[in-house]
Design goal:
alpha+beta; Jelly Rolls; 12-stranded mixed β-sheet; 5-stranded antiparallel β-sheet; single chain; 27 strands
């Protein structure tokens, strides 16, 4: 009986990784490129906004990219102002080896809803296209903010809440939101193969002293920091310098090279071990680690894969977790063991590493700043050392800072004043509070539009706006067979098995181009 209780925990929020890269060498092509079909409007290419190279540098690029035979990427755009290429009405082109590009930021637009989503996606073996990027996402709705001219992708709340008992609250900083005639406007959408249940959504308008940076903690309390210290050093378990990747909150996020790791027969250590160093804040015994991290893109896809391991018994699994506090507690204990969606941090005190708190997961396309309290009372010397042990591929790491010295804030909660959504649903009433009323999106065609009154400004203060959202979602699983009991047993009892399983599935994806449980990607979009 106890064995069965443990087995039922094995397949909830599971996930894995991303692809790797080498050095970048840009090769420009003459305007008279020998590809007669080279055109920024040609079908088959993917609109992009930029890319990150292997040196952690972001390059804006407004154009289109193709994956070419020979494993290179061709970038095509309107030529620079005054160039020979533009004068001759020819496109501007260059090529890069695929393995020299770490991340591509694809541009996904919907003219009917006036939406723009710029999504960072790893350069997978078979392509970099929106069809693949969205197919590998298995979590949470999209929040779009009105920026004065269009709705811009700005948040992914309550990721990992894959059943009703895991419903949770999340806070998304709305960086693109601007008031329009005294109103804030949002869209909430379902763009993946799942049913989403949103319980509540309101704005938290935070007015804070000028020059401070507001960051939410895990409980939804805003902190307005006057002092932020960037990393002075960051290294992995092999001594590799990660400072270029982790020092700035930018578009360059670090993740392990799954393409190389997936070629190994076995991985003995299923964790990365990353040490972060800061100059200690003078006189401060308490500070906050401001983390900007997210669930890895391949990891988001692996949620579907791991749930599918339960096969035709997956609904029994949901019922067990939803109906038993014991099962939920065991599930949470399992997740803490594996650190899939809670990444614990250790602080070096003397010659000991002391575990303190954890960093919550989120994303994978939008990573949020979170303020994690850190006790520095026992730290001595000229540096603060913090260590994390992310399971390989489960985490995409953008930046870390140490923060202290807070200013006072004024927080105004704003409910939606008006809105529209699925037929017959009063979205304003349903999203007003945490209760039994939900806005349900059962298909990818669903969305809601909401408006909020802009509160009066506080003189002498600046403003940051967050969306507070609560809900859960259920992934649509297809073609389920019998449960894979052997795999579930290993998942439950074997620490790190989820990493090894994910690497194996990533290798299968590289070889076949097929994603488990996802319809085949057409060949013209990068499939086989």
């Amino acid at each position: 009986m106890e064995h069965n209780k443990r087995q039922v925990l094995a397949a909830c929020l599971l996930a894995l990784g991303l692809a790797g890269c080498a050095t970048t060498s840009q090769v420009r092509l003459k305007a008279e490129i020998d590809r007669p079909d080279s055109n920024i409007n040609s079908p088959g290419g993917q609109a992009v906004a930029g890319y990150v190279d292997a040196a952690a540098s972001y390059h804006p690029f407004n154009g289109t990219v193709w994956l070419l035979p020979g494993d290179s990427l061709e970038f095509v755009s309107a030529a620079p102002e005054g160039s020979e290429s533009q004068a001759g009405l020819r496109p501007f082109l260059f090529r890069l080896p695929r393995d020299s590009v770490k991340t591509i930021f694809i541009r996904h637009t919907d003219p009917l809803r006036t939406t723009l989503a710029v999504i960072g996606t790893t350069v997978l073996v078979l392509g970099v296209l929106a069809a693949i990027a969205i197919a590998t996402k298995e979590s949470c709705p999209f929040i779009y903010s009105w920026d004065g001219t269009q709705y811009v992708f700005d948040g992914e709340p309550y990721g990992g809440a894959t059943m009703s008992s895991l419903e949770r609250t999340d806070w998304s900083e709305l960086e693109h939101l601007v008031p329009d005639h005294g109103r804030y406007r949002l869209q909430l959408t379902n763009e993946v193969d799942e049913t989403q249940h949103t319980n509540s959504l309101e704005l938290l308008v935070v007015d804070h002293p000028r020059g401070t940076t507001v960051v939410m903690d895990k409980e939804g309390h805003p902190h307005a920091f006057r002092s932020l210290e960037r990393l002075s050093a960051a290294r992995d378990e092999n001594g590799a310098d990660l400072l270029p990747w982790l020092r700035e909150n930018d578009r360059a996020a670090w993740y392990p090279n799954l393409a190389a790791l997936s070629l190994r027969d076995s991985v003995a250590d299923t964790r990365n071990h990353i040490t972060l160093e800061f100059v200690p804040p003078r006189g401060a015994k308490r500070a906050y680690l401001v983390s900007n991290v997210a669930t890895g893109q391949w990891g988001s896809h692996m949620i579907r894969s791991m749930l599918a391991m339960r096969g035709s018994k997956v609904q029994d699994f949901y019922a067990a977790i939803n109906g038993s506090e014991l099962y939920r507690r065991q599930l949470f204990d399992w997740n803490r063991r594996e650190e899939l969606f809670e990444l614990f941090l250790e602080v070096k005190v003397g010659d000991q590493w002391v575990r303190q708190d954890f960093i919550p997961g989120g994303g994978p396309f939008v990573s949020e700043n979170r303020a994690i309290p850190v006790d520095l009372s026992g730290v001595t010397g000229d540096r603060v050392q913090i260590r994390i042990h992310p399971p390989i591929g489960f985490w995409s790491l953008n930046s870390f800072m140490l923060a202290w010295d807070e200013g006072e804030v004024r927080v105004t909660s704003v409910e939606a004043a008006s809105g529209s959504g699925p037929e017959g649903v009063d979205v304003v009433k349903a999203l007003r509070s945490d209760d039994s009323l939900y806005v349900d999106f059962p298909t990818k065609a669903e969305h809601a539009t909401l408006t909020f009154a802009e509160p009066a400004a506080t003189p002498g203060m600046q403003r940051t706006v967050f969306a507070r959202t609560r809900g859960w979602y259920e992934i649509h699983l297809h073609d389920l067979g019998a449960p894979d009991l052997a795999a579930l047993g290993r998942l439950t009892y074997e620490p790190g098995y989820v990493v090894r399983r994910g690497l194996r599935e990533f290798a299968d994806f590289q070889r076949t181009g097929e994603l488990q449980g996802v319809p085949a990607v057409p060949a013209e979009l990068g499939g086989r």
